[in-house]
Amino acid sequence: MTSVLAITDHRRGELRDISYEIITAGRELADETGGDLHLAVISGTVDEFAEKLDRDGVDAIHTVDYGEEFNHGVYSQAVTQLYDELAPQYVLAPNSVNGLDYAPAVANELDLPIVTDAVGLETDGDTLAVTREMFGGKVETTTELEGEAIVTIRSAEWPVAEGTGDAAIDAFDVEIDEGALGSTVTGFEEVGGGDVDISEADVLVSVGRGIEEEDNIPIIEELADALDATVSSSRPIVDNGWLPKNRQVGQSGKVVTPDVYIAIGISGAVQHVAGMKGSDTIVAINTDPNAPIMDIADYAIHDDLFDVIPALTEAFQ
Amino acid sequence: MKILVTVKEVATVEDEFEIEGTAIADQYLGADLNEWDDYAVEEAVQLQEAGLADEVVTVTIGPEDCEQTIRQALAKGADRAIRVWDDALEDVDVLDVGAKTDILEAVVEDEDPDLILTGVQSGDDSWGATGVALAEDLGFEWAAVVNHLEHDLEDGVASVRRELEGGVEELTDVELPAVLTIQTGINEPRYASLRGIRQAQRKPLDVQGLGDLGVDAAAVEGAVTLTEMYEPESESDVTVWEGGAEDTAGQLAELLREKGVAP
């Protein structure tokens, strides 16, 4: 009896961490419903991937050997056919850029409700309660639904599954309608690079929306100079063109692990936190004591950065 | 070519707020054009300025209150707007992805656009799923999380970049008609000019009920119910430095020196 079908994620020959996290989330859910956890791995070197994915708690792994890299048409068709074959109660997919490129389509095709970006899951076998955030992390909510559903899960919310399993690995015979693939991937490109690699920095002075305007960026640069540190930023600063793309910390930017990360005027959206939570010491300077960044900061100053930063710079000049 | 842009008015929340039941108390809420949709509007208007689009139409699901937000999009250059509202929507606490898709599908069937642009997600409930679900529903091609669109649309193909995690972009070709979900940073959204704001007042804003669109009122009930809302518990034991800016900066300076950071 299949109760949970979890779809794994990989890119350019590597399984992504979420693939092991989704095993943990899927196992918990399968235990609550008294069913089995099935995984699917679609495209790429599926047999190699299946061996790596065979961790504790996985009952079966279905390999779909079709194409090299992610294509949302292949994923949509494969997941739909797996659903028809296995009749799971819940389908879990990663809340990654690629997960969001096929999971809503599968939900629509199968006429299933979809709940995205889950940070918690619980079921009594009938009702599924999904914990998620709203308003950029200011509140948490519980949403409930009955029956079957597709849920996308946020990365780094569940621990990585460990231990070797003894899953049944089988090649799933998929029928892909090439005429209905719906897009053609023509390549990949690394962006950023350039003069500075923020992922190598020991100390980052990182600036966010609180800086208000481009003309204020120099006060951050002066502080970085005084500390012999590197300037980085959250997404809006790069979107506005105030700093180059290679300075962006976060899910769509760089993952950084400095000794000290000084977050200045950064609220701490989940996409940003994903890129810097591995920093050794995190200092947050923000007027809003309830900003999500305070949840992961080691030290905080709840004050106006335009007062604090010049005083700090002066202390080092 | 006609472009349809989905425009949502999102709720914004003050730094300090209170929760009443499963909602934030009204006095702490504001309203704004969804940030991601702002970029989608800008992209459509730029396609029009490049001579590729003949008409840019916005569609919004929302009550009369949100007309000010719709006028913002018109002031930035959209030609006309459609607002969908109905008594049946009044009491729905979660308009889920399926319900939104059903409503938007009916609008698309009336309008027959060549290209649909939506924001990647909304700033309030953050579903991030409606654009792709809508594309599948319509049998359109699609691409999610687009941060670059080539404006030539040669041979009816949109060449886009999708922003993956970790500083990698995927290059993808999508044939029109298509839905693209637009990521922030794809362009620089303009401020509405005074002239634009004046013109927006005269642009057509058509209000449609579910019956007008042929959508069954039962479709909006959705499958998902909101049962709880609360402030998340802090996971850290953060040390908060108190005092004036001089004091707090001094304490941070001390920490940095302890860590061997400063000269």
UniProtKB/TrEMBL annotation, chain A:
UniProt-recorded Gene Ontology molecular function terms: electron transfer activity; flavin adenine dinucleotide binding
Superkingdom as given in the UniProt entry: Archaea
SUPFAM superfamilies, per the entry: Adenine nucleotide alpha hydrolases-like, DHS-like NAD/FAD-binding domain
Residue ranges occupied by any Electron transfer flavoprotein alpha/beta-subunit N-terminal domain in the UniProt entry: 4-185
GO annotation terms (biological process): fatty acid beta-oxidation using acyl-CoA dehydrogenase
CDD domains: ETF_alpha
InterPro entries, per database record: DHS-like_NAD/FAD-binding_dom, ETF_a/b_N, ETF_a/FixB, ETF_alpha_N, ETF_asu_C, Rossmann-like_a/b/a_fold
SMART domains: ETF
A Pfam family recorded for this sequence: ETF_alpha
Family: Belongs to the ETF alpha-subunit/FixB family.
Record protein name field: Electron transfer flavoprotein, alpha subunit
Organism: Natrarchaeobaculum sulfurireducens
